[in-house]
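We emphasize that the prediction below concerns an isolated chain of 354 residues; any contacts that depend on oligomerization or on bound cofactors are therefore not represented. The input was used exactly as deposited, without trimming of termini.
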Amino acid sequence: MKKITNNVGLGKLTMLLDAVIAVCIIISVVLLIRFDKVNVQLQNTKPMYDAYVQDSLRLEQVIGDCQKKMDNAEAQQEILLVKIDSMKESYKAIEKDRTVEKKVKDDLQNAIKFDEDQYNSFVTAYTEDSTTQVLAGDTLKLSRAANAPLIDSYTQLEQGSKSPRMAYNIMIIITILLFICKVVFFALWSFRNMKNVHAVSPWMEKSTKPMWAILGWFIPVYNLMKPCSVFSEIWDETKYIMKDKGLASDDDDENQMEFIGLWWGLHLFAKCILPLVVGGLMVCFNYWLLPLACTDFLDMGVFFGIKGFFLNLNHTFVAILVILAWLLYMGYEIYMVNSYNKMNQMLADNESKL
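Result of the prediction step, given as a token string:
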């Protein structure tokens, strides 16, 4: 029964996905810059536009409040008119009637006077609210006329930003799906390589279980270190087996363990920089950031988005930084996978010696 499985094909598929992801990252950042050209103008215009909108909303609120008060005053006037007319008719009926006490007549007359005063206060309030409403309406019209160029400019910029942003978002979604596929294939590749090591090294039974080669990638926070430690263990044990069986010299790739640390450092830097710089759905690259999914991380990043430092740094520099980070990470991972593939192939070819 075979102890060693040849995982070179799975490794090559992982390398191919790395190359494709690197290309997708470049395309995504180029599309982001295309969106950014419009977005910078949009965000420069936004404070003035927002101030106009807030002022317009305030004036519309004043107009609406005045209308409600006027409607209420008008309704109260109608009620009071009916009431006053009714009391006046009652007073006429009892005015010359000697059987009705003077106090009753005075009370009714006072009630009429009170309601008339109430009626006049509603008339005054209606007039004041009407004047305020007219002034607010005129101010709103003047504001709209004066800000017409600003409104047109902002509307055009907002519409103009939708197409490049949509293209960018689509590319990001494609990149995320490819990255998830790559992680799955890399995890499966590591799992099968770990099983190889366990198959020829009995002492590995008390070491890391092969399942952690997969689970380690998908547990938030734990995935900041576990995939690296698993790959490091696979590499270290494979080197030991090859040297022990005379398939590699003792000084062969002595510094390779440091290269694994460099690979993982590039991995973490490339993944962590994206939510801050690029933003959007890039948070999906970093499973430990998913609890923040309800925050601004789901929007554009702080350098290319609607708030934060999007105007404080040279955007070309930031874009180049993102591209370089991912090219270094993807390129180095291809190198690491290819290097281990050679060892895996050697183990498979010399299985009889193990």
